[in-house]
Amino acid sequence: MTGLEAFRDPASVAVVGASGTPTKWGYWLARGALTGSARRTVHLVNARGAAVLGQETARSLRDLPDAPELVAFAVPGRALGAAVDEALALGVRGLLAITAGVDDARGLGARVRAAGARLIGPNCLGMYDADAELDLVWGRFEPGSLAVVSQSGQLGLELAGLAADAGLGISRFVSVGSQADVTAQEVLTDLAGHEATKVVALYLESFGDGRALITALTALHRAGKPVLLLTVGASHAGRQAARSHTGAMTTATDIVDAACETAGAVRADTPARLIAAAQLLVRAPRPAG
Questions:
Q1: Side-by-side strand order, sheet with 94-97
Q2: Pick from 214, 84, 244, 150: which is nearest to 137 by CA?
Q3: Is 224 helix (H, G, I), strand (E, B) or coil?
Q4: Which of the 8 DSSP states describes residue 145?
Q5: At the topology level of CATH, where does 5-120 sit?
Q6: What are phi and psi of 8, to 5 degrees?
Q7: Superfamily of domain 141-283
Q8: Are 214 and 263 contacting, i.e. CB atoms less than 8 angstroms apart?
Q9: 133 SS3 class
Q10: Where does CATH 3.40.50.261 sit in the chain?
Q11: Cα separation of 64 and 224, whole Å?
Q12: Rounded CA gap, 162 and 156, in Å?
């Protein structure tokens, strides 16, 4: 991921909107971030300064001794812009926004890029890297060798759940959400060099820069990491579902198939079939040489 070193194995992480309530995103981000506290500095930010999971919190990022390398946001949509601006002013270079209901996501992404930082999201369901002990998702993942990259967070979690049922662990999980800045193509390109990943499960609702996607898929193919691509159906209902989630529109099925053939990826038509194929690929011995 070009310019996204802060998302690989950050030296410090802050959770803005940390909460002690298990039904809130701020709880799961805080809980997950703390699992990596032996590896990195973890800061929890709570506007009221209330303790979270037995940890003291800061009231704002400005109250921290140093700017974190990566900040995860679980704040209301109306508050995200100001929270991101505060982080950028402090020199934060990696931002992960779970927040939905953001009016001008593209403008937010542009501000982040102009500051020399990068943003995953908004409207995403987080990220996870087993080797880096970076856990910023809802729930628990078991480590393994399957990477999941998804535009729809819920579909990504469904794939991860099906993988767990099949005995497959996760090497890296990235929900790209609205892709206001970081794209799925960038995440895929980075996975080509991700040692722990053996197979990639990919779900997209739109394809943006088709050439960049083919380039990323080709890089994974050359690295010996098969890609299983799940796309929304060609039906009107499928297209409407995609549009309602991220404002995205799907491309024609035949174009997707052509891209997969060119780049060596395999298209799956259901999550269950994708995971069944991943099960075979993960457990297959790698060819010698």
A1: 41-45, 12-16, 70-73, 94-97, 118-120
A2: 150
A3: coil
A4: E
A5: Rossmann fold (3.40.50)
A6: -85, -55
A7: Succinyl-CoA synthetase domains (3.40.50.261)
A8: yes
A9: coil
A10: 141-283
A11: 43
A12: 10
Helix H or strand E segment including 82: helix 77-90
Q: Output the CA torsion sign for 134, 127, 138, 104.
A: positive
> Could you tell me where in the chain the CATH 3.40.50.720 domains are found?
5-120
Q: pTM surpassing 0.70?
A: yes
Beta bridge partners, 172, equal 129, 147
Return the pLDDT at 283.
Answer: 84
How confident is the model at residue 286, as a pLDDT?
63
Give the pLDDT confidence score for residue 82 in this predicted structure: 96
Tokens 């967070």, located at residue: 153
| Tokens (6 digits) for 207 | 């394809």
> pLDDT digits over 175-208, tens only?
999 999 999 999 999 999 999 999 999 998 876 6
Q: pLDDT of 151-173, one tens digit each? A: 888 899 999 999 999 999 999 99
